[in-house]
Amino acid sequence: MGLSSKRTGIPTYEHPDRLSDNPEGDLRAYEVFVQTERGKPHTHCGSVDAADDAMALQFAREHYGRDQACVQVWVCPRDAMIRTDYDKDLVFRLTDQSYRFAKGYNVGAKWREFRAQRDYEDYRKEDIKEHF
Q1: How many Cβ atoms are within 10 Å of 7's Cβ, its own excluded?
Q2: Percent of the chain scored above 90 by pLDDT?
Q3: If 50 and its partner were Cys, which of 29, 56, 117, 132 is the partner (CB 3.0–4.6 Å)?
């Protein structure tokens, strides 16, 4: 029985027991970002493994688009992303902006004290009315 015309151009391999020459495999890791509403930022939601960019986008649509309603999906090859090194790079602000945070003011305690004083004054006024 002969092969069909479409199957005649199939290359033969010298080592049929070897599946891939690439030790990592044929798939690349892609990071997935989704946008839930127009105008809002994209958020990282996970990763997919795919052979190419189009397949990664399709996998991301099927997997992460099914989990939540989203208007746009981004995929980015993980090896194309640049990051800082935990041990070598220190990420910090160049200027001190701690004045923007209400850490040292203890606003909660002052508010509770003010409310307690106001509640006491209201109680005292009502108490005086009842007795005099």
Answers
A1: 8
A2: 33
A3: 56
In degrees and rounded to multiples of 5, residue 50 shows phi and psi of -150, 165
CA R_g for the chain: 32
Q: Say if residue 18's pLDDT is above 60.
A: no
Query: What's the pTM value of the predicted model, to 2 decimals?
Result: 0.51
| Cβ atoms 59, 48 nearer than 8 A | yes
DSSP letter for each residue of the chain: -PPPGGGTTPPP-S-TT---S-TT-S-EEEEEEEESSTTSPPEEEEEEEESSHHHHHHHHHHHHHHHS--SEEEEEEGGG-----TTT-----SS--GGGS-STT-HHHHHHHHHHHHHHHHHHHHHHHHH-
